[in-house]
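User: Show me a protein chain along with its predicted structure.
Assistant: Here is one chain, sequence first, then structure tokens.
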Amino acid sequence: MTESRIHRIKQGECLASVAADERMFRDKVWQDAGNEQIRNIRDPFILRPGDELSIPSPEPKEESRATEQRHRYRRTAEPTKLRIRLHENDEPRADEAWTLLHAGRVIAEGTTSNNGEIETEIDPQFSRVTLRCGPHEKIEQYHLLVGSLNPIETVSGVQARLFNLGIDPGPVDDLIGPLTRGAVRVFQHEHDLTANGELNDATRDALRDAHGC
């Protein structure tokens, strides 16, 4: 029996995308004995580049079928959920039509909820999607990188969340410069925290709550 092997996470990957590439279910990969340590420190959908994920050996499956006949087998893909909240001037953009596209093809559409939320299932191997939303006469378009959000413990993870909340931290470069510190101070002021620009636990907790993850 082949032993589990190690996969090193790259930017833009998460458990769902890795499991899909390996043609395995997420829980089978995540619950592998070799992943006990990473389960204690990471959210499975927000892994950090460089994290090591243990990939279990595939288990052969036997099927009984009649000979001299053609049989068709179809692999069942395990979709993952994409959640987005749309706000403008701190107010949710409720009851707005939206369309999600991948490579120019519509993959989902609907209307935002009362709190401006979009929730839909997508293929975990889609790393880039386009969101179109708003009234027909004023459609807005956003290009989204799926799976590229780093853990909030990293500077780049903080920067990306601030940017998603409409607070410009400058480049998402994992460096704490004056623009990032200024953005942190703005966020702290808006959430009744000491506005010192420091990335302390209270600030990260409030940022995680405001962002949703």
